[in-house]
């Protein structure tokens, strides 16, 4: 522990940035005067992505929609192939054995 006081210490120049959280929280963060202030900062209350007040909004990231199991299946098989596989499996389940494949 230091017994020195901050009274004789001169603080570096600072700037403040205010942020709004999508959950309604508002807070201000101090930054060095020469620092580039980020447009997004983690909320001090809930950890959500807060956006700077009256600043430039970040560009939304472009993302392609997630592929479903059906999409991936249709990349590998045609509808006729799938109907054939379905008929074979139904035959096996019904016990007729007509549609059994040999590997």
From TrEMBL:
Region feature (Disordered): 1-22
Gene3D superfamilies: RNA polymerase-binding protein A (2.20.28.270)
Keyword annotations: Metal-binding, Transcription, Transcription regulation, Zinc
Domain of life, source organism: Bacteria
Cofactor(s) demanded: Zn(2+)
Chain sites annotated for binding Zn(2+): 21, 25, 43, 46
GO biological process per UniProt: positive regulation of DNA-templated transcription
Any one GO MF annotation of this record: zinc ion binding
CC cofactor note: Bind 1 Zn(2+) per subunit.
Function: Binds to RNA polymerase (RNAP), stimulating transcription from principal, but not alternative sigma factor promoters.
Subunit comment: Forms a complex with the RNAP catalytic core and with free principal sigma factors.
Family note: Belongs to the RNA polymerase-binding protein RbpA family.
This protein's name: RNA polymerase-binding protein RbpA
Gene for this chain: rbpA
């Amino acid at each position: 522990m230091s017994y020195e006081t901050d009274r004789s210490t001169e603080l570096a120049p600072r700037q403040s940035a205010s942020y709004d959280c999508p959950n309604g929280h508002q807070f201000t963060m101090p930054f060095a005067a020469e620092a580039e202030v980020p447009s997004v900062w983690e909320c001090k209350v809930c950890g959500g992505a807060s956006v700077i007040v009256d600043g430039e909004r970040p560009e939304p990231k472009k993302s392609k929609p997630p592929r479903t199991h059906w999409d991936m299946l249709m990349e590998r098989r045609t509808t006729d192939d799938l109907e054939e596989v379905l008929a074979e499996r139904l035959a096996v389940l019904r016990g007729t054995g007509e549609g059994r494949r040999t590997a």
